[in-house]
Amino acid sequence: MDIAEDIRNKEKALAERIRTAGKLAVAFSGGVDSTYLLYKAHEVLGDDCIAVTVKSQVITTEEFEWTREFCERIGARQTVLDFDVFAVEAFADNPPDRCYHCKKKIFTAVSEAAEGYTVADGSNVDDQGDYRPGMRALQELGIASPLKDSGLTKNDIRILSKEAGLETWDHPSAACLASRFAYGEKITAEGLSRVAAAEKFIKELGFEGIRVRVHGDLARIETAPEDIGLLAYERSRKEISSELKRLGFKYVTMDMDGYRTGSMNEVLGSADED
Fold first, then answer.
1. Is 50 exceeded by the pLDDT of residue 268?
2. Are strands 211-215 and 118-120 parallel, antiparallel or unpaired?
3. What is the pLDDT of residues 70-108, one digit of tens each?
4. Residues near 258 by Cβ (< 8 Å), separated by ≥ 6?
5. pTM summary value
6. What domains can be seen in the chain, in order of their start residue?
């Protein structure tokens, strides 16, 4: 596959940054960005690259199991950290800077577990400029962002991932389950499980890249704009409404604007972590 020269140059810059790190610990969530970073870091450093995956209430069982399978497949060593997000003081109350507090605690734990390694996350160029309080935590802790620092955009990473044969190249963007809750909406373990179950059910009907946003007892479903008609189709609509009400939602709605990054943050006028 033909790769544009500017993307190829960024890829070379990334490899050099990884090589310079010497020993790299990749915070590996299994998303598009961290998967490519881990793949490239393992290619460059071999056993001097490790994956650190945080297992908590805000990722699904399916997402976690996929990280294990991927690490086994490419031969990368994986360290798993069990982390209780509810131990983060500000997490359950869900303020607008929730992600700052959560990432500060999580990446502190990752850094302690990966002593002797440079810790890196999967931020890319497109993550700059949006409302992303979690980025502040990474900067304060000195976490490296090789993809971003090499000038790689999300689209660049998808192109390189496809060339590398990584199935994540066309996966929808992912974010933790806490991003489904409106700011100020109390986050509970039961609520996280309900969202995970609701999204899993809708995905099994054939919808990808969907979000079930929580506003009290109301579930607001976002799907790709081209799938809105299918989601509203009588059979799909009734199945989804019935299941989500069984899970505990009183009202089930569809967002007519479709899925877009950071819809929970539109009231703040900028994009969210999701």
1. no
2. unpaired
3. 999 999 999 999 999 999 989 999 999 999 999 999 999
4. 222, 223, 224, 225, 227, 228
5. 0.91
6. 5-170 (3.40.50.620), 177-268 (3.30.70.2210)
